[in-house]
Amino acid sequence: MKIETDVPLSRFTTVGIGGPARAFAQPRALSELEDVMRWGAERELAVVPVGLGSNLLVDDAGVDVLVLKLSGELSQARVEGEILIAGGGAPNAVCLHRARAAGLGGFEFACAIPGTAGGGVRMNAGAYGSDWAAILVRALVVGREGTGWLTRDELDLSYRHSTLRPGDVVAQVEFRLAPRPEAEIRQHVGELQAQRKATQPTNKRTFGSVFKNPRHELGAGRMLEECGLKGYRIGDAQISPRHANFIENAGRARATDALGLMAEARRRALARFGVELEREVELVGSLELPPAGETA
Ligand SMILES: Cc1cc2nc3c(=O)[nH]c(=O)nc-3n(C[C@H](O)[C@H](O)[C@H](O)COP(=O)(O)OP(=O)(O)OC[C@H]3O[C@@H](n4cnc5c(N)ncnc54)[C@H](O)[C@@H]3O)c2cc1C
Q: Between the N and C ends of the chain, which has fewer C-beta atoms within 10 Å?
């Protein structure tokens, strides 16, 4: 398998931001994934798996790690009985397509989550009242100590949380679905997607929700809207005029611009609501958010 150097990660993130990865590989099968993990371990390189990069903000300066993008059979999905078996790199759209074609429902909620089966495990991705925890049976995880299955309970999935350790790679996921007529699935998905389009900047380059929703009567988006942040801009990064919990790349935004917006948002939310917003987006590289009261 080819291991490339200095591959710009901006190509692999939905927000289109990110410097080069020191090493980059696209394993196409479990054995290749295990081989490349060993190659990284020998060189003491940290491993960062990347799905569709839909929840990532990557350092402009690049990252001194081994980035893995699962491809080939690790990015495909198939159905056996009522189980959807997805490679860790299988896009949610592909999983949904396979489930619908087999007349299986339960994955519809993921239609508006532009990630992969494996990325969804790490984040316990969810929407519209459902999440990975509701349907996941087990996941095959490749880590430094070897390869093994983890059940849903072992993964301890909760709101945007799992027990996966940094560098663990989900190679395969099994989801339990339930029979549902294809036409019903199609209609439900259409409704959910229309709802999304009406409220979120789905046609812009973003990394999804910036902050988790706090324990508060207002969600993070509404809170930041009340702080007057819609449309607020640093460089080419701007708080979405449509939904204040999204940051758009409006040109050639840098990670530091986005980070500056996040710091300002946290500062204002703390001052106005006494709430310390917690980030949802994953930072890759040496990026760090300053404490909630401070600007970047
Ligand atoms: C427009 C938009 C809307 C969104 N809406 C939602 C939503 O409604 N609900 C929601 O939960 N999220 C949402 N997101 C965020 C994002 O799509 C999810 O978090 C998604 O699950 C990330 O999947 P990914 O494969 O793109 O992971 P990435 O963004 O590539 O990575 C995210 C994290 O997962 C890790 N990871 C990726 N692949 C693997 C793997 N195979 N094994 C182990 N770890 C892995 C990465 O290292 C990183 O830590 C949205 C994003 C966008 C851009």
A: N
